[in-house]
């Protein structure tokens, strides 16, 4: 299934995307408009929601929202594609010797087609196309060989980054967490529909010009290794959002940063696309 949150008739609902439209699942899910609440009952609700029939409401008649807006954690791994690690090193960022994790504060999350703000405090705003996934089952100390079972689904992310603020703090968190700098979506494609998350092509364009293109198979640490590493430290909860790294071609490598009016599109095969216009912070 492709699970989404959408707004229609001034009401936020949960749905599934079918044949270019949205089937309302709100009543069947019984969790209001909270995707996180739905994911806490993943095993119970998935068969029930899959069985829901109905006439899809055309996507053109609804507004798709961030498929999950209230995760307890938004974690991201840095320099997880070799080509990107190499270009980062050329920009003066040392290549880490182990998995490098940082937080994006959940307040940065925004919708798949909502604008992203160029902060007043930064003139070095960058893009990062990323495959994201959400945790579907509460877990701790997960072996890499068993990690697939705890994934709820996959989605498209843009890890928007204010580079000047990123390098003011060794944790990266400030530069990764400006409001609107976490566009995600357009929906969550449930894990059963993605046979191999490490065999997906993804690409990013700015104003139609391709800037990034890679296969998720080029990750240094695969998704299952990421889950094993993180769950050694912390309990992962349903709805936790994890971004798995970006390939080469980011703006800092060529000194081409985003400006007001730019349109950034990130697409991953099987998962859809998000598209966000850059606006000035009010």
Protein model, in words:
The radius of gyration is 18 Å and the shape is globular. The mean pLDDT is 96. It is built from 8 helices and 19 strands. With 282 residues, the chain is an alpha+beta fold. The longest helix is centred in the last third of the chain and has 11 residues. Helix content is 18%, strand content 34%.
Strand content: 25-35%
For the biggest sheet, the summary is: 12 strands, mixed
The CATH architecture of the largest domain comes to: Alpha-Beta Complex
Calculate the mean pLDDT score and round it: 96
Helicity, as a percent range: 10-25%
Q: Total domains, how many?
A: 2
Strand tally: 19
Topology order in helix (H) and strand (E) letters: EEEHHHEEEHEEEEEEEHHEEEHEHEE
Number of H/I helices? 8
Corresponding CATH superfamily of the largest domain:
Fumarylacetoacetase-like, C-terminal domain
**What kind of assembly state do the chains in view correspond to?**
single chain
CATH class of the largest domain: Alpha Beta
